[in-house]
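In response to reviewer comment 3 from the previous cycle, which asked for concrete evidence that the modeling workflow produces usable outputs, we include below a single protein chain processed end to end. The sequence was submitted unchanged, and the resulting structure tokens are shown without manual editing.
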Amino acid sequence: MNFRSIFSLFSSDLAIDLGTANTLVFVRGKGIVVNEPSIVAINRTTNEVEAVGKEAKEMVGRTPGNIVAIRPMKDGVIADFRYTEKMLTYFIRKSHNRKMLVHPRIVIGVPSEITPVENRAVMDSAYRAHASEVHLVEQAMVAAIGAGLPITEPSGNMIVDIGGGTTDVAVISMSGIVYSRSVRVAGNEMDEAIIGYLKRRYNLLIGERTAEQVKIQIGSAYTLDQPITMEIKGRNLIEGVPRAVTVNDTEIREALADCVDTIVNAIRVALERTPPELSADISDRGIVLSGGGALLRNLDVRIREETGLPVSIAEDPLASVVLGTGRMLSDFRLLRRISLE
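The workflow returned the following structure tokens.
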């Protein structure tokens, strides 16, 4: 038994899906140990971190003046260095049961059109959070691995990963990305579209959390078989008092139309730019959707209608990226081929 395999027994290697909406951490040998919102609550007076993750999300929109809930990630990349590092440190410790002396090797999934500066920012944050090695991989690639696509074969696979901040569309063959595009329209943009629509239509102001509930409960991308309605509570902008309105799925579909169109267009462009041999593979195999946005009702139906291709949803769309990244921990040869450095 050589030194390397002894080391791997006590391995503290982590795979992290550092998402705009949620951060997931996968520990080798244990599976997913952390799945929490990417939010940090800061006390403005002391500049201390009050809470991270689930606890911090409970505070969004409900905090007293001196406590603010911050999302350090925006559009899939780091918007706030300091707090991303604090958040990463918290999640790394949590996944190692609060052990202080751990220096893990970390693999992190990032959006495909990330700039070198943003790239550096992610790596620096991970190193400051006490990583011994950091490898970056493209989210679309690891999402495809996590969704179980045969990416090492010489045939075309198309993955659409709809997260919180970005939607990554990629065509993959032989462990390489043939075409990839990242659009900064995804789950968060959908929430904002719902907030904007209710403001215009009903003069009703709602918060981020409520908008997310609306999207999950009655949001859709294509006509539903059974119409559904939901009562939404918020503040009336004219009278300034709390109000409740009842909206139906047709209205929310109208609110989400622009976001859905952007995603569908990105898929169309990807199909137009794919080499013909691989197009033939995609027309047989179809498109696989992953990420939280894949759960939007009838999005698969809408894409099927627009492209005429079979569309399926990954088995566990929310965890595809982190499961694929986790696979990298035990397959260093593949990691070397696909990591971004």
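The radius of gyration is 21 Å. We consider this sufficient to address the reviewer's concern, and the full set will be provided in the supplementary archive.
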